[in-house]
Amino acid sequence: MFEEEKLSQLKKIQVDSEKKEEDFNKIQQRLNSKPFHWQIPAVMIAIACITLFLVGTFPQNQQTTSENLDSSALQAVYYMDWEGDPKSTLQAGVKKVKSEETLIAVETLLEQLQKTDIIIEKPSIDKSYRLEFEDSTVMRLQEYHGSEATYYREIGTGQRYLLEDQTLRGMIELHEPADGKISSIINVVVFILLILAMNRVSKKLRDPEDPKRHLPTHSTYWQSVVEIFTFLILVLFVSVPQLHLFQLIAFLLLSALINILLEAKYGKNKWRMVQFIISKLFFLIIMYGLLWG
Amino acid sequence: MRREVFDMHYDAVYKYIRYLTNDTESTHDLLQETFYRFYQKNYTEHERTYLLKIARNLVYDHFRRKKIIGFFQLKTEPVAVADLPEVVVERNAENEKLYDALQQIKWNYREVIVLRYIEEYSVKETAMILNCSEVKVKNNTARGLKALRELLGGEEDV
């Protein structure tokens, strides 16, 4: 047939022998390179992920009471905006009272709490507090504003209190005004360091034998899929209430592990593995700045 | 690692990947990966069939990845540049036109045409490489040739 004849003209092909030799050498080099035993780091990272996740989600066994308020010295105060149970500063949005002076001021204010029977329907919770005392007892309070006073509801007993003129939030902010300067500076410095590291790694993206040619960023499309899913899940993480830092780190470790395993299987380029770790650190810094900053 | 296998099948694998991807740089990358995977599995029979099967899967992966990345970058796949492989012996206007048309037809038609008329495989062998039925190979060949004919003007019988 005529079409066969015409198409058969395209089959006469000559191969560049230099390129052929180069291809063979590269294949031989890859076959001779030491196999990457991924099982050990995989198991180690998996154990780290599980541990971090368990620590992040494990409930604290502390009695919740307000009965012995008078006899207990206040040890720590955790607080957060809106409703929640602030247990640790590792949770997103949770802050802790730092100075002894503030704790004493808060304790004094607690003594001024007046019991009340006033019920505010559908209260808009402004802040949640967790007060830890010397004898390991815990008191959880929710703060919401009424027209004349600030009301507090103790979770557990359901007892309501009111404070006139002053608020717990006001007292804490008076003693410890919000100062995010140092953490912002650290974030910016780490961010710049990561950009420099990324820049250095990206130089490896060029083929050493042909600097004009860019190597693909990922060795398999599955890596792109993992990156995209990581990004989407991180976007969802923003809306997760009280996300624990360890949960975030565990997730990013897992994502980096999958990327590295895929790289070990398909590309075996160390610079790509470094690139994945750096990109996950980027995500961590951004999320930390966004949720904890 | 058997060098003779590499020498024996290099041209066929190169040609196959080159005609499917229309990209010299990707061709060498995919070719290396094809032989690397082949040597790892250490096949001892039907070597070319296995090589072409591996090559086909890799080319598929390559296009899927480009498609996903293109989608998230809100870019469409660039139209293949109609450029004859630099190694085709006879470089003339007719071949340029034919190659151009080959790059424009649907991917599943193109791979059948390449295997049947450029690699010169039988319908049975092509079906084995593509892991599909012989009827499908025949249908895609006919449709591919028809598409080529239309692209080349239709006045001549391709």
State the main characteristics.
heterodimer, A: 293 residues, alpha+beta, Immunoglobulin-like, 2 domains, seven-stranded antiparallel β-sheet, two-stranded antiparallel sheet, 9 helices, 50% helix, 16% strand, B: 158 residues, mainly alpha, Arc Repressor Mutant, subunit A, 0% strand
Task: Map the helices and strands.
The complex is a heterodimer of chains A (about 290) and B (about 160).
Chain A: H1 2-8, H2 17-32, H3 39-57, E1 74-81, E2 95-96, H4 100-111, E3 114-116, E4 125-133, E5 138-145, E6 150-154, E7 160-163, H5 168-175, H6 181-202, E8 206-207, E9 210-214, H7 221-238, H8 245-266, H9 270-291
Antiparallel strand pairs in A: 1-2, 1-4, 3-7, 4-5, 5-6, 6-7, 8-9
Chain B: H1 3-21, H2 24-41, H3 47-72, H4 93-104, H5 107-118, H6 123-130, H7 134-151
Summarize the structure in short:
The complex is a heterodimer of chains A (293) and B (158). Chain A is α+β, with helices and mostly antiparallel strands. Chain A has helices at 2-8, 17-32, 39-57, 100-111, 168-175, 181-202, 221-238, 245-266, 270-291, and strands spanning 74-81, 95-96, 114-116, 125-133, 138-145, 150-154, 160-163, 206-207, 210-214.
